[in-house]
Amino acid sequence: MSPTQAILETLEEDQRMIVETAQAFARDELRPNSARWDKEGALPRAMLDQLGGLGFLGMTVPAEHNGVETDYVTYALSLMEIAAGDAATSVVMSVHNSPACAVYHMYGNEAQKERFLKPMALGEQIGAFALTEPGAGSDASNLRTRATAVEGGWKINGAKQFISNGSIAGNTVVFAVTDPDAGKRGITAFAVPTDTPGYQVARLEDKLGIKASDTAALSFDDMFVPDEAIIGTPGMGYKIALSTLESGRIGIGAQAVGIAMEA
After folding, report:
1. Of the CATH numbers 2.40.110.10, 3.40.50.720, 3.90.1720.10, 2.30.30.280, which one belongs to the domain with range 127-235?
2. pLDDT of the chain along its 263 residues, tens only?
3. Record: fold of 3-125+245-262
4. One-letter-per-residue 3-state SS of the chain
5. Which of 5, 61, 96, 148 is the most exposed place for a label (fewest CB within 10 A)?
6. Are 66 and 44 in contact (CB under 8 A)?
7. Can you give the residue ranges of every domain in the chain?
8. What letters, b where the CB count within 10 A reaches 16 and e where it falls short, cover 14-39?
């Protein structure tokens, strides 16, 4: 008996059905195409639509916001199966669910949940999480991207790197310094549609592996966002980043196990 099968026998029926659906999707849709997608360096949008239609892009999102509203055990086991089928697809699924969806679920207001979280949970929009910067890595306390207050909103200038889903996302959570004198308490999270003027994909990274998952460098040039784009309140960005990355680490572990299972 495989470790996965042994775990399945301990689950409730609804949990088991979700994980078995992930197994079937990996078997029928991912494994037969994984090598080709890696050579092509991209995932087909139609496949991501299927993934969303099955609920795998809104796993821990509440049902009222179009999500599956499952638990993290079921999420991790499902992600593990997807990773075994195709590592690149699991990256999209992991980053999209947590931290991206988690930001809106945990900290977004109702208008942001309506505009961003609901379509994200269905896979109609892919989410990205723009924290990492050149020279700062993912150290949220050392960011250089700046958001300057202007009439009606903010202008954001700066650069991000190694952003998963950066070129395919419909919206990106962007972290920027709004108060340089406040240290960690001067960082704010913004909800940014990727068609916002000034949002640019500077380049796609040429990676050694998992090439079908895009990893992008982003630049922001006088990118205006309204006050309503602030997630939570000004200065909450550091807390938002760390708390949602915590749940994201569960996804990273599940991906690693799934890839190892298939090796």
Report:
1. 2.40.110.10
2. 455 777 888 899 999 999 999 999 999 999 999 999 999 999 999 999 999 999 999 999 999 999 999 999 999 999 999 999 999 999 999 999 999 999 999 999 999 999 999 999 999 999 999 999 997 766 767 899 999 999 999 999 999 999 999 999 999 999 999 999 999 999 999 999 999 999 999 999 999 999 999 999 999 999 999 999 999 999 999 999 999 998 889 999 999 999 999 98
3. Butyryl-Coa Dehydrogenase, subunit A; domain 1 (1.10.540)
4. CCHHHHHHCCCCHHHHHHHHHHHHHHHHHHCCCHHHHHHHCCCCHHHHHHHHHCCCCCCCCCHHHCCCCCCHHHHHHHHHHHHHHCHHHHHHHHHHHHHHHHHHHHHCCHHHHHHHHHHHHCCCCCEEEECCECCCECCHHHCCCEEEEECCEEEEEEEEEEEECCCCCCEEEEEEECCHHHHHHHEEEEEEECCCCCEEEEEECCCCCCCCCCEEEEEEEEEEEEHHHEECCCCCHHHHHHHHHHHHHHHHHHHHHHHHHHC
5. 5
6. no
7. 3-125+245-262, 127-235
8. ebbebbbebbebbeebbeebbeebbe
Q: Which residue has the tokens 């499952």?
A: 70
